[in-house]
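pasting for ref
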Amino acid sequence: MAKFEVCAHKFADLSEFGYGVALLNDCKYGHSTLENTMSLTLLRSPKSPDEHCDMGKHSFRYALYPHKGCFNESNVVQEAYHFNVPLLKISGAISDTCISSGTPYFSLSGARNVVLDAVKMAEDDENGYIVRLYEAYGGHANALLTAKLPFTHVQKVNILEEPMGDDSGDEVTVLPFSKTVKVCFKPFEVVSLKFSF
């Protein structure tokens, strides 16, 4: 069945009008579906290029997530993230951070089909942060991204964190008198923004 597999991260979904089921997993990528049977390849054990690949003890999790509505109406993407990145308990004193105030550094609103995927420090700027978002369901979207701290500049960058230039049009707009940025998405588009503080 391996020649009919597709690569997918975190989940595969089989839906029809009114309901569906998603197969969630935390580390496997080979999915296949034939009629009403979904498969997830757990081990491959190829001999090339690494003859010891997939040998030894393995640990992985998978789950079924039934849902109402078709895929675009479901919470499959959110549930797959919750399954892959479970809430962690951290012991220690609460300091003056976003954790103690309950407010995240960045929050997303206005488009439930957009996922805030990563926040990281910029590679070449100690006062900069990269925020990576993507459109998950195959539609256009206008999302509002709000920063907790006031920023001095925001610009769209590529995956290498290089400025995209001025041809991005009105895809990224800072709303006046706020810490909010309006970001326009095309279907399945990945957007990286660099915030300078």
